[in-house]
Structures are given as C-alpha cells and as structure tokens.
Write a structure and sequence with these properties.
The chain has 8 helices and 15 strands. By secondary structure, it is an alpha+beta fold. The strands form 3 sheets. Strands 2-3-11-8-13-6-5-4 form an 8-stranded mixed sheet. It has a 5-stranded mixed sheet with strand order 1-10-9-12-7, with no helix packed on it. It has a two-stranded antiparallel ribbon with strand order 14-15. The termini are far apart. Bound molecules: gibberellin A4.
Length: about 325
C-alpha cells in the first residue's frame, strides 16, 4: 500500500496528529532552539518531553485538583465566581460562551497565590503551597523556552521575552479544567480560540480531547500524554515576533467516558508592559504589522470579544 502522505491520512474535518512536533528538551541546546523556533513558526504548538518538572510537583497539584472537583456542587460554588479568580462552571468569559467543563482560575503571581486560593481548599496553606510549587516550576520552564527562542533568533539580549514573564508584576494566570465524562455524542468542551498571552504550558491526564487547528484549517487531535507538556504560542508572542510565530487556535472536544483534567499556565507580561513587534523582526520585506499596545489594553480588548474572536486584528495597522 506504500506510505501515506499526511493529506491522505486526514478526513474532512479532523485529522490525526500528523506532523505535530515533539521536542526533547534534554537534547543539544542549539538544536532544541532551532526546533522550537520552527515549531512556533509552522504550528504555534509543540509537545515537550524531558522538561525537567518533577513528577512529584505534578502529582501533588493533580491530587489537589481532583480533590477539589470531587466536592459537592455547593461547596465548589462557594469558591466562585471566577471574577477574576475562583471556581467557574460551564460559563466562559463574560459574553455568553459556554463549555462542557468546570474550572479553577487562579492568579499565578507568587505574591497573590495565597489570596487567590484562600476559598478553595479546607487546607488553604497546603493548597497554596502546592499551586505555588507547580506555578514556579512551569514559570521557570516557560522562561527557559523563551530564552532558547531568543538565542535561536540571534537576539543579543537573551532575556528579551522571558523578562516579560519573570516580572514580580506579571499578570500570568493558572487554570485547571475538569471535563466530566461523556457517553453520548462528542461535544465541544472548550470552544475554538487562541490564548491572548505570550506562551501557554498545558499538561493533561491521560484523557484526550485537545485539538489544534493547522494553517490549512484542519483540526488535529493531540494524543494525551501525562508525562509531557504541550506548549502553545499566544497572541502576544505573535505580535512580538511580527507574525513570524502564529498563535495556535485550539479547542477541546469532550468525547471520553473518563474525566479529562488539564492544567494551563498562561505566561503574560505585567499590565503596563508595552508590546510591539521587536525591531529585529521588522524589515522592509516585513513591515511592522501591529500598533504598540500595553498588555492591559490588549487584555481589555481580548476580554470584550467572544471566545473565538480574532483579538489581534484590532491592533493591526490597516
Ligand atoms: C483563553 C485563555 C485563558 O483560559 C483565559 C480565558 C478567558 C476566560 O476564560 O475568562 C477568556 C479567553 C481566555 C479568551 C477571550 C476571553 C477571555 C474567555 C474569553 C471569552 C483565562 C484568558 O486569559 O483568555
């Protein structure tokens, strides 16, 4: 029968995870940097193995999360609504988007974690410690990835991107999504969107559902792997690189008879940080595509649109 080309392996609307890059962080640094850059350019997405985040830190946050979602509806409601932080169920954002999930939205800024996690656990000190350890580990990983990108792009200042996240005032967010099991038809768990921030680090249990959209508009299912992280380029990274990197549109289809648990760290700048395409990404062939904006302005605009909205369009030079 011969070897099938990627296109032949696709059906009309969804396809298998053909061509989604998996990058081993323990490989040679120069090679890793080039692979990450290519993945961010071609997919806005990659899977990361040998990421160095301890399995103990991961299992502790997973255990705490399962513990929280196993509580009664009224106990969970008492930790909501998620405005801006806390427990949410089915409603996403402020404009009527719905999903088949419940979630926790938490401030990922170390100084705010105790406050934003206070109402969530019967042992708030322990819960906040566990969140803090996980968030610190994934923040460090995010900064490593961003340093690798800066090195690979040949930027003199290797902290060009990581400095934005590694800031005491960083507006980064941590989210845990819990998708209940489904025995009927496949449903949209979390609708199509791109993340507004710089970089997202996602980890799930062994239940699938995440799909990413390729530039040709086809959806690929990402096989779940609890020992890996998925890395997603956000809108702000797209703007900083003047469209060299593309933020990835993704969604979650709920289709399993087991619950899916995923955790996302969304690395964001501080509210007053200025975002504009780096001069090194601009040339006569690639003129500046975006007007400068503060993260606060972008966030406001992002939150005023529906989930699937194309947020960056509002900041494009016409
Ligand atoms: C997507 C990424 C993060 O989950 C999030 C989401 C936020 C929310 O759930 O409240 C948003 C969504 C996300 C993008 C557009 C706006 C805001 C819902 C929505 C309709 C917490 C974020 O920062 O942006």
């Amino acid at each position: 029968m011969g070897v099938q080309t990627p296109n032949l392996m696709r059906n009309k609307k969804t396809c298998r995870a053909v061509g989604i890059p998996t990058i081993d962080l323990s490989m040679d640094r120069t090679l890793v940097a080039q692979l990450i850059i290519r993945a961010c350019e071609e997919h806005g997405f990659f899977r990361l193995t040998n990421h160095g985040v301890s399995s103990e830190i991961i299992s502790r946050i997973e255990e705490q999360s399962y513990g929280f979602f196993a509580k009664s509806a009224s106990e969970k409601q008492a930790a909501g609504p998620p405005t801006p932080f806390g427990y949410g169920c089915k409603s996403i954002g402020f404009h009527g988007d719905k999903g088949e999930l419940e979630y926790l939205l938490l401030d990922a800024n170390p100084s705010s974690i105790p406050e934003s996690t206070k109402a969530i656990s019967n042992d708030p000190e322990k819960f906040s410690c566990v969140v803090d350890d996980y968030v610190q580990a994934v923040r460090d990983l995010t900064c490593d990835i961003l340093d690798l990108v800066a090195e690979g792009l040949g930027l003199e200042d290797r902290a060009t991107f990581s400095r934005l996240i590694d800031d005491v005032e960083s507006d980064s967010v941590f989210r845990v999504n819990h998708y209940p099991p489904f025995d009927q038809n496949q449903k949209v768990g979390f609708g199509e969107h791109s993340d507004p921030q710089i970089l997202t680090i996602l980890r799930s249990n062994d239940v699938g559902g995440l799909q990413i959209c390729s530039c040709d508009g086809l959806w690929s299912s990402v096989p779940p792997n609890p020992s890996e992280f998925c890395v997603l380029v956000g809108d702000t990274f797209q703007a900083l690189t003047n469209d060299r990197f593309k933020s990835v549109r993704h969604r979650v289809m709920a289709n399993s008879n087991k619950p899916r648990l995923s955790m996302m760290y969304f690395g964001a700048p501080s509210l007053n940080a200025m975002v504009s395409p780096l001069p090194q990404m601009v040339s006569s062939h690639s003129p500046t595509l975006y007007k400068p904006f503060t993260w606060c302005e972008f966030k406001k605009a992002a939150f005023s649109l529906r989930l699937a909205g194309r947020r960056l369009d509002q900041f494009k030079y016409s």
